[in-house]
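This part of the workshop introduces the protein records we will be handling. A record pairs a protein's sequence with a compact description of its fold. Backbone structure tokens are a discrete shorthand for how the chain folds in space. The question running through the whole workshop is how a given chain folds. The record below serves as our worked example for the rest of this section.
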Amino acid sequence: MTCKSRLYFRKWLRIITIAVLAALLSIWGISVPAFSQLTQTQTNAQLLVEQGRKLYETGQLSEAVIVLQQATDAFNLQKDELGKSMALSNLSLVFKQLGQWEKAEAAITQSLNLLKNSQLKTHDFALILAQTLDIQGNLQLELGKTEQALDSWKQSANTYAEAGDEVGITRSLINQSMAQQALGLYRQARTTLEELQPRLEQQPNSLVKATALRSFGDVLQLVGDLELSFKILQQSQDIAKKLQSPSEISATLLSLGNTALALGNSQISQQDSISFENYTPLHCINRPVSTESVKFFQQAAQFYEEAVTTATSPISQIQAQLNHLSILLKLQQWSQAKKLSSEIQVKLTKIPASHTANYAQIHFAENLVCLKQATNEDMPSWKEIALGRAIIKQHLMT
């Protein structure tokens, strides 16, 4: 693998890691402050938020927007500022997934303004503020405002500490490590997650704990500690299985596949690498791989296949399938690669626009280069591939 292609894979893997973490760490169902008497409208508003969450998790984003806007209106009628703030922050989350960035920013800004102007300084207020800052951080990270995201998550950690919420502190530290990864500060991210270990040991099994371990495994993979990464990821997988969480199981399988893939790449002899100058985006180098590498690649492929079957969202399925396609190309299994690429192409046309979807399109285009070069397929043309990559990258820049 060339210097530049290793850097590209590293960048792509970091993007996938961040995308998955951002999706799984999104905050839903923020606790509404307890009232001695809840009116019917308030109850309905909370049910609408729950309905919106379910729509979000199943990828019905446009429907989720409508329901959450209804929840916002219902909370507003009751002059329930905390409930309205909760609904707005979740609405921002959905707009983010739809790629409607201005609406997402407007919703999260309105949510935080409500909280800043609120006279309530209760325990519930602190929790809602902390969780809203979490969502703001996720949006900032998607928009490339990584340092601002890191600051938001530091604020949320402090707010969780004021509320005495250990799980919230854990979640914020995970998020901080996510921002550090985006900044390329892998060793700082590792230090952040290592500091989490004592907290995790004292906590019962939970999705937050499984996610923390998975994030730690991802960071270990990125800094090259592959064997420990694999061990930590297996611990995360065990917890996810005990909790019977398909989304977390799928995410961990994706991470295990990435580590197995990295182990396979580490076996490739440096003598087989090509010079940096010979690398171009529309050129793919196919070379035989060692027997040891093949074992790791096959293991990674199995993890990716399992991740697809357990994934709960279309984008998660596509991410696992794209990585599986990369494996098939490495193993020069062209017929299987052609079949899988056709499946991915269909799925990509059905997912809503988002940064994650755009990165998936770019990754798919890179795989198509290798497949077309090896099989001389007529469709798509080189011009179409190059133009598609350029359009998507330009869209990401704007």
Notes: The CA atoms of residues 328 and 337 lie 6 Å apart. Confidence is low (pLDDT under 50) at residues 1-41, 273-283. The two ends are 31 Å apart (CA to CA). The longest helix spans residues 3-24.
